[in-house]
């Protein structure tokens, strides 16, 4: 299973792209990063702090 994930993640990142700011995906969900639906999978406190630091730079 880990081998499959190790193969799929780089391909997904390449084709989906990365967005550092929250946006609405085509389905209407708040999304960030590599297509992470933050309504269904909220950011942790640490992840929120990291994003805040990145946005201040």
Task: Summarize the model shown.
The protein has about 55 residues and is of the alpha+beta class. The protein has helices at about 1-15, 45-55; strands spanning about 20-25, 30-35, 35. The chain has 2 helices and 3 strands; from the N terminus they run H-E-E-E-H.
Q: What features would you describe in this structure?
A:
The chain is built from 2 helices and 3 strands. It is an alpha+beta fold and 57 residues long. A 3-stranded antiparallel beta sheet has the order 1-2-3, with no helix packed on it. A hairpin with a 5-residue loop joins strand 1 and strand 2. The longest helix has 15 residues. The relative contact order is 0.13. The mean pLDDT is 85.
Can you give keywords for this protein?
alpha+beta, 3 strands, 21% strand, globular, 57 residues
Give the SSE string: HEEEH
Show unreliable segments.
none
Strand content: 15-25%
Approximate helicity band: 40-55%
| Number of beta-strand segments | 3
For the biggest β-sheet, the strand order reads 1-2-3
Outline the secondary-structure elements.
Blueprint: H1 2-16, E1 19-24, E2 30-33, E3 36-37, H2 45-56
Antiparallel strand pairs: 1-2, 2-3
């Amino acid at each position: 299973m880990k081998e499959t994930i190790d193969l799929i993640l780089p391909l997904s990142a390449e084709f989906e792209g990365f967005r550092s700011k929250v946006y609405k995906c085509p389905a209407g969900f708040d999304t960030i990063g590599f297509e992470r639906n933050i309504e269904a999978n909220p950011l942790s406190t640490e992840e929120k702090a990291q994003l805040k630091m990145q946005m201040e730079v």
